[in-house]
Each structure stands twice: as structure tokens, then as C-alpha cells.
Amino acid sequence: METQHQFQVLVANESHLSFAQIICDEMAASAKARGTGIAKRSPEYIQQKMREGKAVIAFNQDGIWAGFCYIETWSHGEYVANSGLIVSPNFRKGGLAKAIKKKIFELSRQTFPESKIFGLTTGLAVMKINSDLGYEPVTYSELTQDEAFWAGCKSCVNYDILMSKERKNCLCTAMLYDPKDHYEPEETKEFFEEKKSVFERLLRIKQWKLLKPFFKEDKDSNTPSGGGAGKIKSFFHYFFNL
After folding, report:
1. Which CATH class, in words, describes the domain spanning 4-239?
2. Which single residue of 7, 109, 150, 220 has CA 20 to 30 Å from 80?
3. Crossing angle of helices 124-133/185-221, nearest 10°?
4. pTM of this prediction?
5. pLDDT in tens, 177-233
6. Within a 10 A sphere around the Cβ of 82, how many other Cβ atoms?
7. Are 120 and 173 in contact (CB under 8 A)?
8. What's the distance, Cα to Cα, between the start and end of the chain in Å?
9. How is the chain split into domains, by residue range?
10. Which residue(s) pair with 80 in the sheet?
């Protein structure tokens, strides 16, 4: 297994345009395998980010593509999101995701020093990486309210939950780094390590609480008077990867 020290993580540019299609394909495959959705992006969009210097790309020591992430801005630059983090299946569990997140975070701070940097995640591992960088868990009300950002959630299988909660909650945990008001990374890292088991339990409770109404709908829809369950059955198929 290769470690993060055996990868080159750099700011993407025009010399990397040919990797856009494989990046998009891997993003789609990963989302399907995990049963969660991400904002779908075209190869042209990924190439645009590369040209603008708003993306990082990773290669192993043999020059094989290994990972990617890009920057998006919202609310006229007030907010920045590090989006589309993807690591090739061949290079996972070696610390590369952490190295990419660190690089894109640094690029975001350099390019948009006054912007708040935020992210949404369903995974404890990503929460830990974000905490190591200085992110803090926040409510959805502290995120951008830019309609264009939330429109990107439409491709997620959990979109019905998000809308049923009026965009105030979902399975994702919101995390934020505010350059004008934040704890130091050592503090957020220590806090996460101390509360890791609590966060894990809360994620499970949150998942069950938000999914419970959909369990009921799925059960009701399978009765003779249920009226069909196409959308809900599709939701469970992808969410639980059955």
C-alpha cells in the first residue's frame, strides 16, 4: 500500500485536461457505490477548474492518476467549498485523501483568504480530516444560502430528506472554517478525538431519525393500496447498496 508520502499532489493546470473524463467517471462510480449523491460535473467543468488554477490533482510515483479535488465559490465569494474529492480505488486507505484535502485547503486560503470554507459530509473519516485542518461542525444555517449550491444536491439520493427538512438538516454533517473566527487546528483536532465516539453515535441517531419516515413510506407503498413505490424503492436500493 502506498502512503501519502509516495504521491505528488499539485495544483492542476492545462497539462492535466486529459484526466477530466476519468475523474468524472470515478466520481460517478464512487457515489453509486457509497449510495450517496454528489453534484454531477461534466469533464468540461472539471477542465475549467484546472485552467483557472482552482483544483488539485494527485499522481503516484509512476505518474498514474490517483486523486482530485476542486474549489467552488458561492455567495459572491463569501463562501468557498472544496468539492469533488475523489481518490482512485487503487490508492485508497493510504492517507492520500488527507493530503489532497490539506492541499486544496491551503490553495483555498491563498486564493480566497477572506472566504469561509465549508463542507458537507456523511463520513466520520472526512470529519476527522476536516477537524485536523480547523473546521468546526455547524448548523446548515451557517452555510451559504446560494440557490445554485443547493441545486447541486438534486443529484443526491438524500435530496428528499433535505427538502423535507427545509434545507435545515440532512444526513450530511456541515463543517466550516471561518478565517475571522476560528479555533486553531490543534484545538479542533483534540476536540474531535475526545468526542469521536459521541460523533459516531450522533451520526447513527441522525441517520435513523431522518430515514425513519422513509422506512414507513416504503412499507406503506408495498401494501395493495400503497400506490407504487418507484422513487422510494430506488432511494433504498442506492442508499443501502442492496
Report:
1. alpha beta
2. 7
3. 150
4. 0.74
5. 999 987 677 878 887 787 778 777 777 776 666 666 655 555 555 544 444 333 333
6. 24
7. yes
8. 29
9. 4-239
10. 73, 117
